[in-house]
Write a structure and sequence with these properties.
By secondary structure, this protein is α/β, with parallel strands linked by helices. The chain contains twelve helices and 14 strands. It has two domains: 253 residues, Alpha-Beta Barrel (TIM Barrel), CATH 3.20.20.100; 53 residues, Alpha-Beta Plaits. The longest helix is centred in the N-terminal third of the chain and has 15 residues. Pfam families: Aldo_ket_red (PF00248), Fer4_10 (PF13237).
């Protein structure tokens, strides 16, 4: 497993960060025990850091998987706004993960300088936690160009987790070229960058080599968070990254497994997905999108227009 340095002053980590959303209760692809097994398998292959978040509700799952792996690093995130909320989030993570010191903790899904201003008290608490040695590195995750630019200027920020893929899917406020410029600006300041949604929430999975190559050759990006929910997906992704041939049988298991349209519970019912669906398979009920599975052809058009990345083919 290739090792990379996360920014100018961050740790050395494996190029691949295990994105644990795919094994969490929030997505419901696998049972908790199955998720533990997949995560431990990835650790055995050399993956040495894990991305999670308070909203994923899988700290206990990760703690189980990490037995015997005390040196694996964990990134978590929260939507905390106040100092008190951040203290509670940090305490929750430390207790559930059984760690006195957290490796990384980020403000979740920051969109701009205005969003960060609204979370200023939480950020100040993160800075204090870093000074006290409760957290080693702090930062933000974002789907926005403005989020990357504003985050790069935050005092004490170490790492940014931006959305990045070759079609610019999921960027909520600008173009792909603008996101690349923002990432270059942040990395030029020494900030660590690890990308999310490199397969566009599954919509770019038909050409995984292209998707991975694009992000790997993007200047300033050191790591890649990959969501994986099976051993086959772990093997598949690591073979691709190693430049090795993927056996046909493994390709078929990963590329042709039964899939479904997943709609996250943070859907805001904006209706853009309904307009994009050529099959009329989506509707709004109780202010959220719902899918008629019999009508859905898994084309992915809905996910391409969702501003909050709520719809994914899984």
């Amino acid at each position: 497993m290739r090792q990379v340095k996360l920014g100018s002053w961050g740790p050395d980590v494996s190029e691949v960060c295990f994105g644990s959303l795919a094994i969490s209760p929030l997505q419901g692809r696998v049972t908790e025990a199955e998720g533990v097994s997949v995560l431990r398998y990835a650790l055995e292959q050399g993956v040495d850091w894990i991305d999670t978040a308070e909203i994923y509700d899988n700290y206990g799952q990760i703690a189980q998987a990490l037995k015997g792996y005390p040196n694996v690093r964990i990134v978590s995130k929260s939507y905390s706004v106040s100092a008190e909320e951040m203290r509670l989030s940090l305490d929750k993570a430390r207790i559930a993960l059984d760690r006195d010191t957290l490796d990384f903790f980020l403000l979740h899904e920051q969109e701009s300088a205005f969003t960060l201003q609204g979370h200023a008290r939480a950020w100040e608490e993160l800075l204090r936690a870093k000074e006290r040695g409760i957290v080693r590195w702090i930062g933000i995750s974002t789907h926005a160009v403005a989020g990357v630019r504003a985050g790069a200027l935050l005092p004490g920020l170490d790492v940014i987790h931006p959305i990045l893929n070759y079609q610019g899917l999921g960027i909520i406020d600008g173009t792909l070229s603008e996101m690349l410029e923002a990432v270059s600006f942040a990395s030029g300041l020494g900030i660590g960058i690890y990308a999310m949604k490199v397969f566009g929430g599954g919509h770019l999975a038909n050409d995984p080599e292209k998707a991975l190559a694009f992000v790997r050759r993007t200047p300033g990006v050191q790591g890649i968070a990959l969501g994986m929910s099976s051993r086959e997906e772990v093997d598949y992704n690591l073979l691709l990254l190693a430049g090795k041939d993927v056996p046909q049988e493994l390709q078929e298991k990963v590329m042709h497994r039964k899939r479904k349209l997943y709609i996250a519970d943070w859907c805001q019912g904006c209706g853009l997905c309904l307009e994009a669906c050529p099959q009329g398979a989506l509707s709004i009920e109780d202010n959220v999108s719902v899918v008629n599975a019999e009508a859905c052809v898994l084309c992915g058009y809905c996910g391409r227009v969702c501003p909050h990345f709520c719809l994914k083919i899984v």
